[in-house]
């Protein structure tokens, strides 16, 4: 699919500058099948209005945490069920990261709100330590294995 000729035809440098992207990024996206610029008589890439929309879409989806392969799969389908199949794992991963970030924030805020000079004296800190020790004993896990569970310190 070639770009629309509607609107100004931008060079690769102009398109990159418009979005703050290096030209090699746009070339990479083209090799991945995400962009399909038209070519002028000299073989130079010319980007139109459709390409502006594609680049903006790619940037929005990347900001949402999607990889280029997933973005390519999404752009290749108009089927709702396929779109859901592609996005469902990304949504689950994002929910998991949000839960971990919330737990981390609770932990940090607990430390900030602790009235004790030494945070290790905070009752909730001590409770968390006991819970961690008890939980690892119940599962027979080594004490040095990281745990991503969060919660308040204070």
Description:
- The structure is a single chain.
- This protein is mostly helical and 154 residues long.
- It has two domains: 12-75, Orthogonal Bundle (Multidrug-efflux Transporter Regulator, Chain: A, Domain 2), CATH 1.10.1660; 90-139.
- 59% of the residues lie in helices and 3% in strands.
- It has six helices and two strands.
- The protein has a two-stranded antiparallel sheet with strand order 1-2.
- β1 and β2 (45-46) form a beta hairpin.
- It is elongated.
- The protein starts with 11 loop residues before the first helix and ends in a 15-residue tail after the last helix.
- Residues 9-77 form the HTH merR-type domain.
In a few lines, what is going on in this structure?
This protein has 6 helices and 2 strands; from the N terminus they run ααββαααα.
